[in-house]
Amino acid sequence: MRNDGRLSRMLHVLIHLARHDGPMTSETIARMLDTNPVLIRRTMSGLREAGYVRSEKGHGGGWAIATDLNAVTLLDVHRAVGGPRLFAIGVENANPGCQVASVVNEALDSALQEAEQLLIARLRSISLAELARTFDARCGDLVPR
User: Fold this and answer.
1) pTM of the full structure
2) Could you give phi then psi for residue 63, rounded to 5 degrees?
3) What is the largest CA-CA distance in the chain?
4) Can you give the residue range of the structural domain that contains 19?
């Protein structure tokens, strides 16, 4: 099963936008991510609807940051890009009358709910500003502002 990379890809884009002078076109972003500009526009539209980016049409237009990076968390971005369920594994109810299935499903359901709450809390605790600061600390001298 292929991983859904929308969150990591859009976090990548948002940090680039935050460190780029002026808007970036969908075509530029698509080349950077080795994908199609239509997919970029479709995914970025969720970020625009959430108010995290803005788009400008015409010559010199493109996508630009429209929010304070301190105010947006990884969980916010996950939700804005229509991220899938956090876990692809789940329970099977092929035979709901089976007591073995019932015991297994209860244990898995409980563990998955607990893990999901931990992951949600962690994603909520990391802001885009924190990612940008970490990037700056590692590569700040190499990247033009």
Assistant:
1) 0.82
2) -105, 140
3) 65
4) 6-85+127-142
